[in-house]
Amino acid sequence: MNSKPTQSTNLPWVEKYRPKKLDDLISHEEIIKTINKFIDENLLPHLLFYGPPGTGKTSTILACARKLYTSAQFNSMVLEMNASDDRGINIVRGQILSFASTGTMYKSGFKLIILDEADAMTNDAQNALRRIIEKYTDNVRFCIICNYLSKIIPALQSRCTKFRFGPLSIDQILPRLDTIIKEENLNVTEDGKQALITLSGGDMRKVLNVLQSTWLAFGAVTEENVYSCVGHPLPIDIKNIVNWLFNESYELCYCSILFSLLVQIIACLQIIIFLNTCSEIQDIKLKKGLALQDILTELHLFINKIEFPDSILIDLIIKLAEIEKRVSIGCSEAVQLNALVSAFQNARDIET
């Protein structure tokens, strides 16, 4: 197991390695170039950043703030609020209005108000905010950050310049990941890196959080350790399940998958159960527990890679969607597991 870095810090790596300058950002070059030009020409408009989590929205506006203001000015010129905590109309009419209406202590320049997670704001709060944006434009600039643009009222959208932050690509994530691995002196395998990138879905924050969690838990970042840390089924688990669903009897499919779902609970309770079933269960016996929701997600991706007749593929996808919906609203996993096995048994009958 590797020793921890000599530098004493309790910061999560997400914050420790957050870019401090616009030039340090690893993606969205066109957006960065445009914002840099706005700042250089002193023409910064109100901004609206939207897109999936972990794609650099907050890091970008904080880097902009550091370029606009010195460290001595920062606290008095920047108001950063997380709208998921402060999202009511009273906050808009109180703290935000007070900050926006107060003049700066410097001869020139404007204040900056950052509203993170703004899609959690109520409609009343958003409607109150639109008048403040218009009235105090000479004194303040707003940056509204959200994941879902549709949850921001059109009146606010029209007052801001919108930038979409898409998921990061592998080529963008990998260099920063390699830099952090080198800085922290970590033992990371190539399949471990690939697992981190696959599970992240373009979310750099998730990459770093899973990397740090896996390293602290196991001392080495391998594919198996990464999947075990997040409780996600390994690719080999999904392959085994697909093999059972297409080739084994109904009873064996159900028992094998059910056992894989219960392994973690059994291990936690330290219960020893002797099962006289076939070798498939014995092979998965020592593996981590699996969630039916995760199995459904991976199965959907897996079966799309297999060449099926259109009618069978459509039928399978519809049934998987129905099962996932029922699981999400709290239906019994045991019943839905039966439905999953039945869906594939039906597909086998149609094919034959």
Automatic annotation (TrEMBL):
InterPro entries: AAA+_ATPase (IPR003593), ATPase_AAA_core (IPR003959), DNA_pol3_clamp-load_cplx_C (IPR008921), DNA_Rep/Repair_Clamp_Loader (IPR050238), P-loop_NTPase (IPR027417), Rep_factorC_C (IPR013748), RFC_lid (IPR047854)
Record family assignment: Belongs to the activator 1 small subunits family.
Keywords: ATP-binding, DNA replication, Membrane, Nucleotide-binding, Nucleus, Transmembrane, Transmembrane helix
Organism in which the protein naturally occurs: Apis mellifera (Honeybee)
Lineage: Eukaryota, Metazoa, Ecdysozoa, Arthropoda, Hexapoda
GO biological process: DNA repair; DNA-templated DNA replication
Keyword hit for Ligase: no
Superkingdom assignment: Eukaryota
Signal among keywords: no
A GO molecular-function annotation: DNA clamp loader activity
CDD domains attached to this UniProt entry: AAA, HLD_clamp_RFC
Subcellular localization(s) per the UniProt record: Nucleus
Subcellular location, principal: nucleus
Domain AAA+ ATPase: 43-171
Residue stretches spanning the membrane: 257-278
Protein name from the UniProt record: Activator 1 subunit 5
Cellular component terms per the entry's GO annotation: DNA replication factor C complex; nucleus
